[in-house]
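Journal club side-thread
Mid-discussion, someone asked how the predicted structure for our own chain would compare to the paper's figures. Pasting it here so we can look after the session.
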Amino acid sequence: MPKVEISPSLMTMDLDKFSQQLTFLDQHAGSYHIDIMDGHFVPNITLSPWFIQEVRKVSDLPLSAHLMVTDPVFWVDQLIELKCHYICLHAEVINGLAFRLIDKIHNAGLGVGIVLNPETPVSVIFPYINLLDKVTIMTVDPGFAGQPFLESTLAKIVELRELRQDYAYRYLIEMDGSSSRKTFKRIDAAGPDIYVVGRSGLFGLSDDIAESWQIMCRDYTDMTGKILPDL
């Protein structure tokens, strides 16, 4: 059975318990998802390269920076310096820049991710899909936690799996948005490699992160009949 990776979205963590939550999650999660928003691409401002520096002080897990910004060039150099395992760019803002940015990130020895908004078809990334290390499908409208789950987006996960099998592409497939007990069964049927979990799926389940993790694992098993593996 393929191994599913859990990537907690640190935008939704309890910052009052920063070290405590990361210390626990380091022993269970596969990576961390860090949203960087500029207030223009989406109407919200969240985490920053400074936050990534703080995470690095207490964690060695792979970090995936999700750039919800209108000017990705401005941010890429900073994230390369911080050695984010993946730098994930929105397909909607890199037309005319894609190959340069992909080369720049790869030349730094880091992974390139591309993110697709709910309205954006997979065909948009066909010119450079063979170069990608990860493709993230937004299953909610981006910008805020707690947005409604958009089931229609799951067809893109299935399409990406089929393309990967047919053409031997190497990218991982990640889903991002409203991953929780209510949606685990539908997401599992589509078959992503990585689940980004936020407030509804993890951090909002209990005041105690260990208990939240146990609830999440139990919810996943109840809904899918499968067991979430730890590291």
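Post-session note: The chain has a mean pLDDT of 94.
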